[in-house]
Design brief:
Helix content is 43%, strand content 12%. The chain contains nine helices and seven strands.
Length: 209
């Protein structure tokens, strides 16, 4: 049984030969423990996912490196220590006045598509391919700012729907492209709760989301 079949069987409750493994690690863990992690965990317990998933690509992502970074959407990130994700401190749509001339990045202008496609051709499809970090709620708050978005969800201004449509169209185009490439799974990464409960009242959630 190869890794891909193992993951699919687990998802479909069809008794794989063992539980599939995905190593979900932050770059800070590698930085702190280095070869010990690689030797004692990664090599001893090989993972079943192709090396293109979110956690394996974090070390090369500038948002996980110390400093100030601007992402392709125009959000400004501050990372004070590196190795973990920083915080958005600059929101390009903090004012709705900026929405008139705002356009999301081209969803297909991403070298990652070609990298994954080449990996599939070179390595074959023996491992399970999960890709991307597609979000909706997170992107809304990064663009608007958390407090602004919470007010928006109560007032539901027409601008919020316009922005939501832009983000959804971007996400759908990416998902379509991944489907053409033939990956197994697209990672959706929204956080909609906190340690003690919900961020958004269920009634408000249902009206918008």
């Amino acid at each position: 049984m190869d890794s891909r079949e193992r993951v699919i069987r687990a998802i479909e409750f069809e008794s794989p030969d063992r539980i599939p493994i995905m190593h979900a690690f932050l770059p800070s863990a590698i930085r702190r423990h280095g070869e010990k992690i690689i030797r004692e965990i990664f090599e001893k317990y090989p993972h079943d996912y192709a090396d293109v998933y979110q956690y394996s690509t974090m070390p090369s992502d500038p948002l996980y490196q110390k400093g100030i970074h601007r992402d392709e959407w125009g959000c400004i990130w501050l990372n004070v220590q590196g190795g973990i994700l920083g915080q958005v401190v600059g929101h390009p749509l903090e004012s709705w006045d900026s929405l008139k001339n705002y356009e999301p990045p081209n969803p297909l202008n991403d070298p990652f598509f070609e990298q994954v496609e080449n990996s599939l051709k070179k390595e074959g499809h023996k491992k399970y391919y999960t890709v991307d970090y597609i979000c909706f709620f997170e992107r809304l708050q990064w663009l608007r700012g958390f407090k602004n978005l919470m007010r928006d969800l109560i007032k539901l201004p027409k601008e919020l729907n316009r922005l939501a449509e832009k983000i959804m169209n971007y996400n759908i185009e990416r998902i379509k492209r991944w489907g053409e490439i033939g990956v197994d799974e697209v990672f959706l990464g929204d956080d909609l709760g906190h340690q003690r409960g919900l961020i958004i009242d269920p009634e408000v959630f249902r009206k918008f989301f």
